[in-house]
Specification:
Order of helices and strands of chain B: HHHH
Helix content of chain B: over 70%
Number of domains of chain B: 1
CATH superfamily of chain B: Fumarate reductase/succinate dehydrogenase, transmembrane subunit
Structural class of chain B: mainly alpha
Oligomer: heterodimer
Distance between the termini of chain B: 54 Å
CATH topology of chain B: 3 helical TM bundles of succinate and fumarate reductases
Number of helices of chain A: 5
CATH architecture of chain B: Up-down Bundle
Distance between the termini of chain A: 47 Å
Order of helices and strands of chain A: HHHHEEH
Shape of chain A: flat
Strand content of chain B: under 5%
Strand order of the largest sheet of chain A: 1-2
Shape of chain B: elongated
Number of strands of chain A: 2
Helix content of chain A: 55-70%
Radius of gyration of chain A: 22 Å
């Protein structure tokens, strides 16, 4: 995974960058929060996967697990993870117009329209999942 | 000498797919698991659902792809924070974790009742 960096045979100066550089500027901070969102999403999915594995162990084990997830600590985690997950979704759809350029003939669909369509798709997808998974 | 990592587009592709899956489906699943009543997403409801192969495939995708997304993001975030790991060890550790998680997810989903 080596990054393409030139290797010099003589000493070069590297400006020292403190590990807290992302706290200096709001934009840097939000960038780091966006990256961090992936960690909370991954942890949530591992909890979710563990829950799925308990389906094989029967109703009692699954019910017990559901009860554990209602404890204060887990609820706090879900609140934080939800905020991060929504922030990920928001940033992902926001840049959609720049990442995915759509052309209709000679006309380029405006970025804001693409983002709006993506946001609408997100709402529809969430509604479908909610409908399928709950009763 | 420049050394270009030829596997980069592959990992980036998984990162991108994982980003889409996470953005579309993760928030609603957090709501269902974390905040809805236990009866709404209860045992019998879930067992009935996972009997459907399409739901199995969906659940596998839902867990697996965002793991690669997270591995990719954390790899660069940790590098940006100044973490220096010799060679490609950080990438091996993070992508390896995502691959391992994917195998576990495949096993769990495949053996659901």
């Amino acid at each position: 995974m080596k990054q393409p960096e030139p290797e010099y045979t003589y000493p070069t100066y590297h400006r020292p960058i403190p590990a807290t550089w992302w706290l200096r500027d709001r934009k840097y901070f939000l960038f780091m929060m966006r990256e961090l969102s992936s960690f909370f999403i991954a942890v949530f999915l591992l909890i979710y996967l563990y829950g799925l594995s308990l389906l094989s162990k029967g109703q009692a084990a699954y019910g017990q697990f559901q009860e554990t997830l209602r404890s204060g600590g887990f609820t706090l985690f879900f609140v934080v993870a939800f905020i991060f997950a929504v922030y990920h979704s928001w940033t992902w759809w926001s840049i959609m117009g720049k990442v995915q350029v759509v052309r209709l003939g000679d006309h380029k669909v405006p970025e804001r329209v693409i983002t709006a369509v993506a946001l609408a798709g997100w709402v529809v997808a969430s509604a479908v999942v909610l409908f399928v998974f709950t009763r | 000498m420049y050394e270009v990592n030829k596997t980069e587009p592959f990992w980036w592709g998984l990162f991108s797919l994982g980003g889409v899956v996470a953005a579309l489906f993760v928030p609603i699943h957090i709501i269902m698991v974390g905040f809805l009543s236990a009866e709404a997403v209860g045992y019998h409801q879930m067992v009935a659902l996972v009997g459907n192969p399409l739901i199995k495939l969906y659940l596998f995708t839902l867990v697996s792809l965002p793991l690669f997304h997270a591995a990719h993001r954390l790899r660069f975030a940790l590098k940006d924070l100044g973490l220096k790991v010799a060679g490609g060890l950080l990438g091996v550790f993070l992508y390896g974790g995502a691959v391992f998680g994917t195998m576990v997810a495949a096993y769990i989903v495949a053996t659901l009742p």
